[in-house]
Automatic annotation (TrEMBL):
Gene Ontology, cellular component aspect: cell outer membrane
Keywords: Membrane
SUPFAM superfamilies: OmpA-like
Pfam families xref list: OmpA (PF00691)
Main location: membrane
Residue ranges occupied by any OmpA-like domain in the UniProt entry: 365-482
Taxonomic placement: Bacteria, Pseudomonadati, Pseudomonadota, Alphaproteobacteria, Rhodobacterales
UniProt protein name: OOP family OmpA-OmpF porin
Subcellular location field: Cell outer membrane
InterPro entries listed in its UniProt record: Bact_OuterMem_StrucFunc (IPR050330), OMP_bac (IPR006664), OmpA-like (IPR006665), OmpA-like_sf (IPR036737)
Length: 482
């Protein structure tokens, strides 16, 4: 009996010792299982979660593929001491092709579409994309080069005005607009780290970097148009204003880079005074300098005009002057683009269209009105009409022709100042009056209705003692008779 009791006491002691051992070993075992499970989870693509209860491992999360899921389950089942693995890993949908696109608007904002391989990759893109990164859908199937290409594409969008960086299965296509060659170089630099053949480009340069080279073409019939490449900052309206034109059609593009040209070149201000005389005009300004080709109407003195313009423009401007004949039929009408004046072709000359009652008093008033603000100029000491005489003669012919048509006759008077020999002045004034008469006849006025008379200095209208007075005395007059 005593022996049986001793055996019972021994067995009880062993049980108590076992329970004590288990109570101390179980936490340590659970910790070892948890550490092993965490090590397996740490190697997962999407970071699965593991929780250990006793010796059981509970899992949740995403597996990138069936292969990864099977590998994770095998690794968890091999954790020493585990009893069972509970839970299920969801398979992430696979996409093919794997595409990620980032877009930059003209305002500079970024947007994104397509897929991202991991949340870690999304976090990597968030500093650049901000909220736009949330639009990317998590998916599996990304090749190894997908994210480096996306990151490089975002960097390439930086110097661009607008565009897209589209990655498909690791191949990057960058398209859009850049300001100029410098910005294009910055795009290429951002893509330099990608493998050869992994990038394609379709970039449009807003400015190709070539220097400004532009042309103004003008015709009295059709007006003016700009073509070519204008300097940065040059306004078309400013060019029109410099020439005294109401408008200029613009078919030119403007430079976006380079030194700005806020002011219109001075040659346009010089040409402004001749716009009423041009039948056609071409001004080209480029890297090779400035060149002007001008065509004047019938009767223009090419030599005098060339000399006058060359002196005003200076030696740096190439100049080519010509006299052109109109191809329009006699009597054709047009609106002169420079003056806004209606004109009619008479004997090859474009004359302003005059509208008034052709009686003696009206004809006298109209002729005096033409000659009041200006006069017919001659080369000093000569009867050669000066370079700018054509516009006055055209206006005068436009008045005289309808008056002569109703039977009125006009005396063209030549007058000089009192300088020099009186008889020489009479002879000079006669020759000048005859030159004006010949110019009017050339413009269609009947020769029989005109006579020329030289008065010399006999009829002054101002004091010959002053330069201003002498200038007023050198004049042409028109006197009408029945």
């Amino acid at each position: 009996m005593r022996k049986v009791l001793g055996i019972g006491v021994m067995l009880l002691g062993v049980a108590v010792l076992g329970l004590w051992a288990n109570s101390h070993e179980a936490p340590a075992l659970q910790s070892r299982i948890a550490a092993g499970a965490a090590q397996v989870a740490g190697g997962s693509v999407h970071g699965i979660s593991t929780m250990v209860s006793g010796r059981d491992i509970n899992i949740a999360g995403l597996a990138d593929s069936a292969a990864e899921r099977d590998a994770l389950m095998a690794a968890l089942n091999n954790v020493p001491g585990r009893r069972v693995v509970r839970g299920e890993l969801q398979l992430l949908p696979a996409v093919s092709p794997f595409e990620t696109a980032v877009f930059k608007s003209a305002e500079g904002g970024l947007s994104a579409s397509g897929h991202v391989p991991t949340e870690k990759a999304r976090a990597l893109l968030t500093p650049a994309l901000g909220e736009a990164a949330s639009a990317l859908v998590l998916a599996s199937g990304a090749p190894e080069g997908q994210m480096p290409a996306v990151i490089a594409g975002i960097a390439a969008l930086g110097p661009m005005i607008s565009g897209a960086a589209e990655v498909s299965d690791g191949k990057l296509h960058v398209s859009g607009d850049v300001l100029g060659p410098g910005e294009r170089g910055a795009v290429l630099l951002a893509l330099a780290g990608l493998p050869e053949g992994a990038v394609s480009l379709d970039l449009t340069l807003r400015d190709d970097g070539t220097p400004p080279d532009w042309t103004l073409d003008y015709s009295a019939m059709q007006g003016a148009v700009l073509t070519g490449k204008l300097p940065k900052g040059l306004e078309v309206a400013a060019v029109a204003g410099a020439l005294g034109l109401a408008r200029i059609d613009n078919e030119a593009k403007s430079a976006l880079i380079g030194e700005p040209m806020p002011e219109v070149p001075a040659i346009f201000g010089i040409l402004k005074g001749w716009m009423a005389d041009f039948e056609r005009l071409r001004v080209r300004i480029g890297p090779g300098g400035s060149r002007i080709e001008a065509g004047f109407g019938a009767g223009a003195d090419r030599e005098l005009i060339s000399g006058r313009l060359a002196e005003a423009l200076g030696p740096d401007v190439a100049l080519d002057i010509d006299v052109v004949e109109s191809e329009a039929p006699e009597g054709a009408e047009r609106m002169n683009a420079a003056t806004g004046q209606a004109e009619r072709l008479s004997a090859g000359y474009w004359l302003p269209v005059a509208s008034f009652a052709a009686d003696r008093a009206s004809c006298q008033a109209q002729a005096e009105n033409v000659l009041e603000g200006t006069t017919v100029n001659f080369v000093t000491g000569s009867d050669r009409l000066d370079a700018d005489a054509q516009r006055v003669l055209n206006r005068l012919a436009a008045v005289i022709a309808p008056c002569a048509a109703v039977g009125l006759k006009a005396e063209i008077g030549g007058h000089t100042d009192a300088s020099g020999d009186p008889l020489g002045n009479i002879a000079l004034s006669q020759r000048r009056a005859e030159a004006v008469r010949a110019a009017l006849v050339a413009r269609g006025v009947p020769a029989a209705m005109l006579r020329a008379w030289g008065y010399g200095a006999s009829r002054p209208v101002a004091d010959n003692a002053t330069d201003e007075g002498r200038a007023r005395n050198r004049r042409t007059t028109v006197l009408w008779s029945e």
